[in-house]
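Journal club side-thread
Mid-discussion, someone asked how the predicted structure for our own chain would compare to the paper's figures. Pasting it here so we can look after the session.
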Amino acid sequence: MPIPESQLETWSHQGSIQQSSATYQTVRTALEDKRAAYADEQFEVFLQGSYGNDTNIFAESDVDVVIRLNSIMRSDLSALPPDQQAAYHQTFAKATYTFGEFKSGVITRLSNAFGASDVASGNKAIKIKANSSRRSADVVACYQFRRYFRFIRVTDQDYVPGVIFPTASGGEIINYPKRHSENCTAKHQSTNGWFKPMVRILKNMRSRLVDEGVITKDVAPSYFLEGLLWNVPNDKFSGTYGDSFCNCINWVLQVDDTKLKCANEQYWLLGNGNVQWAPQNYQTFLNAAVSLWKEW
């Protein structure tokens, strides 16, 4: 039998809002403190992830925060003709402040604010432990990345802004969290408020499958579930939650999945890149979700 509408309705609800908001404000205040070693540099602090995109569920606890250094940047100029690449290089001088200095300053600032024992640098993010008044938080220190489509001069240019940062395990992550968030919000509006509740339902199904040992947690990260449903045509989101689930999944099962895009529109959703969903994991999750629906 299918999953009851009452269960889907429960799963559609957003998780912690008040404590997540308070945690973000506490972390942001710490990062923007004038005593920070990087205080005189150009930077910005913003949310990413499930809480930032309003798709967090009760089973999730982390608040994902980005601090992006804008004083330096790296750019992809491959789409520009030679004359525009030359104009770009003539316009921007080589930076003297380094990302290494910036990240070191971020770690020091967080350690001073929350205590060194509660702050640890992980593979991708700086982790802050939870306590009685705040949730755990992941802080990604990164710098500006731009994918250019035109560069004539500073007042006449076109690019997609993103972030770039090295990982402790080697390699770099280049992604576009603001574009992802903006497109997810636009999708939510264009589906008359259906998109984000349906993402939460899919994420709760994922949590159920993990709890039952059907899949492991790393098979279906929230970022990819948001990206998957972002691809589904708007008219599939309507009726009941059960109707929407069936319409969306049936469309996904029939589509050419090599043409699915990440919600930021800069990558294919499926692939072997470090910001793509491994095809085997995608298929594992899809099969498990369909089975959960049919065998409830």
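Post-session note: The two ends are 6 Å apart (CA to CA).
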